[in-house]
Design goal:
Residues 21-130 form the Response regulatory domain. It is built from twelve helices and five strands. The chain has helices spanning 3-18, 29-41, 52-56, 71-82, 98-107, 119-130, 138-145, 150-155, 159-169, 174-181, 185-198, 204-214, and strands at 21-25, 45-48, 62-68, 88-93, 111-114.
């Protein structure tokens, strides 16, 4: 076989080895496949995976694009970042509030992006991550660098209230939380409603997602 053919084959294998592998984790197949098409068009290797934590733990340069909508998603984000062997996570936020950006970045994500972003925004964030950089909105950057405001401090739950939220997040009933706290079930419902209102949330689900974003759970 001619030397130039061998050299060309070697170059092709090297180029394939250099392609950054990007896993997409999203509950909707159509949305997931759309992101994979954008990623592939940008020159990266897009994949669907079953276990993002194990996939990211491989000591090879990889990026996970993870949609974060529920408490379980935030837990998965934390787990990926803790065991990712230096690989990156881009959080796709269903609720792109500054606090959600800050929560994702503090957990270890290299970037975050709203779920309704156009394809070019995803490409820009992915290209930056591949280059070892991060595109961060100004509000999120400010949230990372500024101390907590007095208003936020006033709305933060007490240690007891954090304990209630943690118990609810793990699946305990209001009756069980009330029993451990020494309140009647009726009183606990009232205290929790007051807590949700103080946090600016309409119900338990919104309050728990907010608590997870804030790092209270």
């Amino acid at each position: 076989m001619p030397v130039d053919v061998l050299a060309e084959e070697r170059r092709v294998h090297e180029d394939q080895a250099m392609i950054l592998r990007v896993a997409v984790v999203d509950p909707l197949p159509m949305f997931r496949h759309g992101m994979m098409a954008v990623i592939t068009a940008a020159g990266y290797g897009a994949e669907e995976i079953d276990d993002a934590v194990s996939w990211a733990a491989v000591p090879e340069r990889r990026i996970v694009v993870l949609t974060v909508q529920t408490l379980a998603d935030w837990t998965e984000l934390d787990a990926i970042c803790r065991g990712s062997a230096g690989n990156g996570v881009i959080a796709v936020l269903d609720r792109p509030e500054p606090a959600a950006y800050v929560r994702a970045l503090r957990a270890g994500a290299v970037a975050a992006i709203p779920r309704e972003s156009p394809p070019e925004a995803l490409r820009a964030v992915l290209n930056a991550a591949a280059a070892g950089q991060s595109l961060i909105p100004t509000d999120a950057l400010r949230g990372l660098t500024e101390p907590e405001s007095d208003t936020d401090a006033d709305r933060s739950p007490s240690p007891d209230e954090v304990a209630w939220l943690r118990q609810l997040a793990r699946g305990d009933s209001v009756a069980e939380v009330a029993g451990r706290s020494g309140y009647s079930e009726r009183m606990m419902f009232r205290l929790l409603r007051e807590l949700y209102a103080r946090l600016g949330k309409r119900n338990r689900t919104e309050a728990l997602i907010h608590a997870q974003e804030r790092g209270w759970l």
